[in-house]
């Protein structure tokens, strides 16, 4: 009877240890999954921020291009006027 009790206690201890080990593994897996989820969320936020910055940069570039085209047109018109003035003054 005594051997049976000792065997029972040993079995219970082994099962408890096994459950504790399994629980520790589950806790670690959950912590790892939670960390991975947080990392993924941070990466998504960073990507969204980068996309927003890229859209802003593109809009700024388009505005700068439009201003450059307008300046080029004004310069071309000024050159044409200057040419006409030179032609008129050379005829006189």
Automatic annotation (TrEMBL):
Pfam families in the record: Alanine_zipper (PF11839)
Residue ranges with Low complexity bias: 39-58
UniProt biased composition (Basic and acidic residues): 74-83
UniProt entry keywords in alphabetical sequence: Signal
Origin superkingdom: Bacteria
InterPro entries, per the entry: Oprl
Secretion signal, residue range per the UniProt entry: 1-19
Region of interest called Disordered, as start-end residue ranges on this chain: 36-58, 72-92
Protein name: Lipoprotein
Organism the protein comes from: Marinobacter salinus
